[in-house]
Amino acid sequence: MNIFESIILLLSTVINFSLQGAIALFIFKKNYKYTHLVIFSIVNALFRETLAYASPQYNPALYIIMYAAVMVLTLRFILKIGFVYGVISFFILMILSSIVEFLAMTVANLTFSSIDDITRLTSSFLILVLLKNQANLFFLVVVYIVRYSKLNMDFTAQYDSRRWTHLILNFAIVTAVIVPNMLFFQQNIIDYPLGLIIFNAAAISVMFFLCIHNIKKTYKLKVQQQELVFQELQIKTLEDLVYKLKGFKHDLSNMISVIGGYIKLNDIEGLKKYHECMQNECREINNILPLNTYLKDTPAIYGMLLAKISYAQISNINFNLNITHSVKVSKMPVYEFCKVFGIMLDNALEAAEKSEQKFLELIIHKKNSKLIITISNSYDGEIDLEKIYEDGYSTKVEHSGFGLWEVKNILSKCKDCRLETFKNDMLFTQQLVINCDKA
To answer: Is 153 left (phi over 0), alpha (psi -120 to 50) or beta?
Structure first.
């Protein structure tokens, strides 16, 4: 085989792995760059061709182990797919490759009458290229199906380790059943009738799609369980809100009488203190209303803010919420957004708690297709805006200063997000701006 033919065959293998990488990305709805996909396919193609050239009679079991290691590592570090997703992707691609092999065996059984015929014709460069691209055509069809159908698996809900283990075991068992079956028929392709080969291919396909269907059903149940817990939390907050409104309405006449008493006695200082107490009571009601109005469809942020509001009440922090738009972030993973948002709120709460004014305000609004989240807090002492995002820098005693450095690292991966920081003599403010798709 000359250099030109070797390059053509390598190119066919590169296309094959680029299609496999695309399947993995589309299944889990991952963002990607074409350059990363090209690098992924070249690395895997070179590994496969090098192994085939160095050891033509390789051990299938050893090859599968090495192939799995390279595939998972390249999915993780080149395509930026998580390790667990990478393992699941490997099993899915192995099952799909087995289906391709059975299709190829069916064609070979129809076309050739003996092993000698297969050996003789596959020595032809043109036939070899056609056979390789037969697999590419199948993977192209799968890419199209996954891309434009509901076969993808978007695991946005939190899966614990037990569920991830169950998920991986499902695919591992199906793969363990299919691959030896495929290898056996591959070694004895002419010795078995065409009907048996077709039956095996159909059985594998049905088993694979049933596995995907069952996993999606299981995941749907998990999401519904989380939604049920969230709805119970919403009902509880609404009940608390109704209870507080009833109490406020019941005490309204008394409040007016008390205010009138302070005015008649000209006790302005007493009136100010009483007004501050009324404001604190109203703040609890005013903070719950926007949560149930704008954040009812984002359980993670809803639950986080409820926890921060409770902490602020315990710490006597005046926490004001001004939310006029929902928070639906598609530009970065929900997990990473919650981590950024949580670190910003925790820092603001801690600084406000240690300050004299104990003030914190959260504003969420949308302007010109941009979601703007502004967190302002009172603070004491000095803040160096040039150093706050450095690893290890902190204004707090016995703190590592890791939080804002991590925020900077997460946001650096999102080109549609930017964080602005500024301060005056009273307030320290951080503003997260996220470019949203125009409606």
So the answer is: beta
Query: pLDDT tens, 151-195?
Result: 666 555 455 667 777 778 888 887 888 777 777 766 665 566 777
Which residue bears the tokens 């926007």? 290
Mean model confidence pLDDT for the chain? 80
Dist. CA 60–CA 64, nearest whole Å: 6
Q: Which residues of 383-403 are buried (b: 16+ CB within 10 A; e: fewer)?
A: eeeeebbeeebbbeeeeebeb
111-120 pLDDT, tens digit per residue, is 666 556 655 6
Question: Under 8 Å CB-to-CB from 244, ≥6 apart: which residues?
Answer: 281, 284, 285
Q: Name the helix (H) or strand (E) containing 360.
A: strand 359-367
Q: Work out the percent of the chain whose per-residue pLDDT is above 90.
A: 17
Range 61-88 average pLDDT: 86
- Domains, the chain, in order of start with CATH, read 3-224 (no CATH), 297-439 (3.30.565.10)
Confirm if 132 and 195 have CB atoms less than 8 A apart: no
Give the type of residue at 361.
E
* φ, ψ for residue 169, nearest 5 deg: -60, -35
The DSSP symbol for 325 reads S
Which two tokens mark 298? Answer: 């984002």
Backbone angles phi, psi at 178, to 5 degrees: -80, -50
Q: Where are the beta strands (DSSP E) in 184-341?
A: 318-323
